[in-house]
Amino acid sequence: MPRLEEHCWSCSCETKHSSGANWLASKAEEMMSIITSVLRNAYGSLHDVRAANLIRRGLVLFTVGAFLALVLNLLQIQRHVTLFPEEVMTTLFSSAWWIPPCCGTGAAVVGLLYPCLDSHLGEPHKFKREWASVMRCIAVFVGINHASVKLDFDNNVQLSLTLAALSLGLWWTFDRSRSGFGLGITTAVLATVFTQLLVYNGVYQYTSPDFLYVRSWLPCIFFSGGVTVGNIGRQLAMVMSKPHLILSVK
């Protein structure tokens, strides 16, 4: 009889241990599913916030690029630096309709690439990160464009060297980053090649071309423009990543 009672007692203990282990396992599985669901929802919310911020930054950069392109292109047309067909001059603001959207798209791409490249290289740009500096950078960029059509030199080489020095001065004053310099050079090369293809196909032309259908100072303009748009993109990325803005989006 004692052996039978001991056997029954051990069986009941094992049953209790087994049921307790099963209960703990089910509770742990339930907690894991809850945690996974919470993390998935948090990641989805964060992804949505980042996507919304990216779209808003892109729209702001597109608007700024389109506006600057329209104003600066009109300046070059008035000074007879660029020549368009007569039927083009009767369109919006006496300028080619495709220039603002093309330049706006380019500004959005370049402005979004600058903070992404900073993050990828692990070198966050912290030099003069305030809107006052960005506005001064825009003013200097407009001044460089104004100088390209106002300054009168004996030849385009002297003008190109002067604008190159001004463009490097803009980068040194408002950027000083390797990523900014490299992306500015890339922007200048690609934009100049694209412009040369447009001129080669007769879309428009430059007066007194001296560098494969265009002016030799044109890469300087694109370089300084890339640095300027990059600073705008960096500032937008910093402002829109603040916690109170993310909470307001949610």
From TrEMBL:
InterPro entries per the UniProt record, alphabetical: INSIG_fam
UniProt main location, coarse: endoplasmic reticulum
An annotated GO cellular component: SREBP-SCAP-Insig complex
Transmembrane segments: 59-77, 97-117, 129-149, 155-174, 181-200, 212-232
Keyword Iron belongs to the record: no
Superkingdom of origin organism: Eukaryota
Keyword entries, A-Z: Cholesterol metabolism, Endoplasmic reticulum, Lipid metabolism, Lipid-binding, Membrane, Steroid metabolism, Sterol metabolism, Transmembrane, Transmembrane helix
Protein family: Belongs to the INSIG family.
Reported function: Mediates feedback control of cholesterol synthesis.
Protein name stated in the entry: Insulin-induced gene protein
Gene name of this polypeptide: insig1
